[in-house]
Amino acid sequence: MLANLRSELAILPQILSIRANRSTFGYRNSIKYHKYHDRCRSAFAKSGKNRAVDPVLKAKAAEFLDEGAAFIENDHTKTVGAQIVERINSQPANLRWEADEAGNQIKLTSDVLTSFPELRVLSENVLEPFLNEVFGSNYKIFLSVMFKSVAFDDSPIGSQIWHSDGGPGTCVNIIYYPGGARAEQGAMELLPWSASRKLLIGCARHVRRFLQRSPKASKADIRNLKAEYYADQIDGMLNVTRPVSDSGAVLFFRNNCVHKGGFPEPGNERLAIIFHAYPHMDPPDYDDWFANGRPKTAPYPVDPHF
After folding, report:
1. Is 281 exposed, middle or buried (CB count within 10 Å of its CB: 0-12, 13-18, 19+)?
2. Does 5 have pLDDT greater than 80?
3. Closest C-alpha to 207, from 183, 234, 182, 226
4. Which domains does the chain possess?
């Protein structure tokens, strides 16, 4: 009884962080991102900036706030996607790709935003109005990456198995499928935030019990333990969603929603662009973003006002 109490107290900061801040960071580490978000909302409200007026985007933002995820397919996502696919197929010299067979990916090593200026239309007409509604503030892209998912290996690995990203709870993950994504291509699967929250708390307790028995466990051991726990718990759950599309579409979801994706069936591949977006005090500086890029330099910003 006493041992169980001690165990629960040991993970209490993590459980509080999951419940209050939608993060596995621990309460003290995660709260600064939410305090900054509050400041962003206050400044945005005082600025008088008009929010999204498109009723579909408003409805999708409301869906995101309720479920932790939303899938958008409209004229902008389709048109920009078709332009990007056409550019890739023409094999321009400025696009540099590198195979990562261990990760079942072919990665774009040139910067995403500078390589595809077409994404500015998507950013201004889909990402910005949607995120203004979700955040109640301006937004900023922290990182952007692009890759083709290819089944070099017979088994899914890394982000292709169930996981949560473990970043700040204010982060919104954005996955843009320029050419769409179907189930056989490895379209993303995820759980809504309410179910993810329960899984994360259960997993924290599961890992704590494991560490009490195996205190010298490696990071790889814990990563595999979490993946197995999620897979066992999720098996047969009815609220797993998998949005699919035959043309350009974008999926928004909370950083710590439990998810997996990108392991295609043989003969298929999935093209995806990933953004991580955060609330921000400053309006988007598209001229700077598309001139200098927003490459991935770290998994998350140490300073919320990056």
Report:
1. middle
2. no
3. 226
4. 2-292 (2.60.120.620)
Contact 97, 109 (CB under 8 A): yes
CB atoms within 10 A of CB 167: 23
Tokens of 37: 């978000």
Work out whether the CA dihedral 297, 109, 173, 234 comes out positive or negative.
negative
- Region label for 134, one of left (φ > 0), alpha (ψ between -120 and 50) or beta (otherwise): alpha
Cα–Cα distance list, 258 to 44, 94, 164, 190, 233 (Å):
30, 35, 5, 6, 11
d(CA 246, CA 56): 20
What's the count of helices (H) and strands (E) in the chain, helices before strands?
11, 9
H or E stretch at 236: none
The answer for residues whose C-beta is within 8 angstroms of residue 164's C-beta and 6 or more apart is: 24, 196, 200, 255, 256, 257, 258, 259
Contacts of residue 291, defined as CB under 8 A and 6 or more positions apart, other chains included, come to: 114
Distance CA 261, CA 160 (A): 5
CA distance 143 to 70: 20
Percent of residues, the chain, with pLDDT higher than 70: 96
Task: Give me the DSSP letters along 143-181.
Answer: EEEEEEEE--SSS--GGGSSB-----TT-EEEEEETT-B
pLDDT per residue as tens digits for the range 228-250: 999 999 988 878 999 999 999 99
Q: What is the value of pTM for the model shown?
A: 0.93
Sign of CA dihedral 32, 36, 42, 45: negative
Q: Is the pLDDT of residue 281 over 80?
A: yes
